[in-house]
Design a protein that fits this description.
The protein has a three-stranded parallel β-sheet with strand order 1-2-3, with helices on one face. A two-stranded parallel sheet has the order 4-5. The N and C termini lie far apart (46 Å). The longest helix is centred in the middle third of the chain and has 17 residues, at 92-108. The chain is 42% helix and 18% strand. It has six helices and five strands, in the order E-H-E-H-E-H-E-H-E-H-H. The chain has helices at 15-27, 47-57, 73-79, 92-108, 128-136, 150-159; strands spanning 3-8, 30-35, 64-68, 84-89, 113-118. It binds 4'-phosphopantetheine. 4'-phosphopantetheine (PNS) binds next to strand 1 and helix 4.
Length: 161
């Protein structure tokens, strides 16, 4: 049975993330979406909240499970007995960092390969940071995040003003 991990900070999950999840779930028998710590980011949603938001928007995909880990991705993959990490690439500018991460992860866990899916063209501009900024201005979030979580994102943007 083929298995892959899709890691990210998902603060919050966007339509771009969901597009990658749906496509990766068609490619692998099992897809583990894992909320992880990005040392460069300061999330506004807790890990538990992010897991819950992702579960809500992926409940139509039976082979997706959602979890969290505060450890290294390469170690998490080893624990899960999983040899593939899926990452989305929006632009060439994403590549340099992702390439470095893939090499570091391979160094820590030589069994681990990283596979890149190109983001759908309609989501290349989209990021969780853009979503949070737009939410802060009260903009319509319909094109950017799944409708099931729009209210949560809006409420959090108001709270953090
Ligand atoms: O959605 P993001 O913020 O681009 O995801 C990045 C993430 C969370 C996948 C990355 O920071 C990560 O792998 N974090 C776990 C800790 C780790 O393994 N770091 C890489 C080695 S320094």
């Amino acid at each position: 049975m083929s298995k892959a991990i899709y890691p990210g900070s998902f603060d919050p999950v966007t339509n771009g993330h969901l597009n990658i999840i749906e496509r990766a779930a068609k490619t692998f028998d099992e897809l583990i979406v894992c909320v992880m710590i990005n040392a460069e980011k300061h999330p506004v949603f807790s890990s538990e909240e992010r897991v819950e938001l992702i579960r809500r928007v992926t409940k139509h995909i039976p082979n997706v499970t959602v979890t969290q880990s505060s450890g290294l991705l390469a170690e998490f993959a080893r624990e899960q007995n999983c040899g593939v990490v899926v990452k989305g690439l929006r632009a060439l500018s994403d590549f340099e960092h992702e390439f470095q991460m893939a090499l570091i992860n391979k160094k820590i866990n030589p069994e681990l390969d990283t596979m890149f899916l190109t983001a759908s063209q309609k989501y290349t501009f989209l990021s969780s940071s853009v979503v949070k900024e737009l939410a802060g201005y009260g903009a319509d979030l319909t094109p950017f995040v799944p409708c099931e979580i729009i209210e949560d994102v809006r409420a959090r943007a108001m709270r953090s003003e």
